[in-house]
Structure formats: structure tokens, C-alpha cells
Amino acid sequence: MSIRVIAGTAKGRHLNLVPGDGTRPVMDRVKEALFNILGDAIDGSTFLDLYAGTGSVGIEALSRGASSAVFVDNDRSAVKTIEENLKTTGFTKQTQIVRADVRDFIRRPASTPYEVVYIAPPQYKGLWRETLSLLDANAEHVALDGLVIVQIDPQEKTDVTLNVLSAYDERRYGNTLLCFFERPGS
Asked: Is the CB of residue 143 less than 8 Å from the CB of residue 113?
């Protein structure tokens, strides 16, 4: 299996996969659908890729016009893969890679709010709920009118109580479910 950048300035560039089976790269058709839904919201945006894995979603955002991206992953192999993929695509200058547990990262005070946050945690561990709840409790990480997208297996879907973020859409693509939330502005 190989993954690539679908559109934008790095279109067609092939990305390395994280060795082993600990990560599950998002399928091209899901990634394409995601960015079609986001549309112009990506232009000039600040992007936060949580449980970044290969970094392919954040890299796709940069290729389509995001101004910057931060990639957070705790796995040493994933961090190395993201570094390689950023070099391949030429996006090293407007990016930062943070090797940390995503939940610890969210608990820290936000240095900047992000306009788009993508959460794609390891499956079947309840991490998506925990991460989304933490992000809701530490909402300063999400800009006003900012978007949060969660990628999960549809079987993992359960209700989650949020105080700041609000759900507004959900799309299913085979065994991938994208859940969309926003932080309403004033």
C-alpha cells in the first residue's frame, strides 16, 4: 500500500508509511472527501494533526494552502516518518512536530488556537472520546469558528457530552466515519 498527496502544490508526491501495523493511514477517497467538505476553510488556516501517524492529513492541508501545521504523535517511528514526508513534500519550514502523548499536549496551555484540528487515534481504545472531551475542556486550542474532525471506525461511535464544541455533520465512507464539530464564534 502506498499513500500520496492528492491535490495542491505537492500533488502526486508519495509518502512513506510508518513501519509496522500500529498506524492506519487514511484512504485516499476519505482524504479527498474530507478536503472537498472543508473546501476554502483550509486556505491560510492553522492545522493541528493529532495522532498524526504518517502526517498525510496535515501534509494534504499544507499542499492545499494551510499556512502552518503542527503534528503530534508519541511514536518514535511515526515522528521519523513525518520528518521524512515533510522533507519529501518541501513543507519543513511551516511545520512543527511534537513527540508527545496527544492528551498531555492538549492539557498544556495553548500557544496558539488552531482553525482546523484533525483527530485520528488508534482504533477501539476509546481514545477519540477522551481526546475530544479533553479538547472540549481545553477549547482554547481551537479557534473561534474553528473545526474539529474525528476519524473513527463506525463501530466506535457513541454519544459524547460536550460543553464548548458542537457536532454539525457526520459522513461515512466504508469502515471510516468522519465526525465534524465546531467551536462556535461569538
From this structure: yes
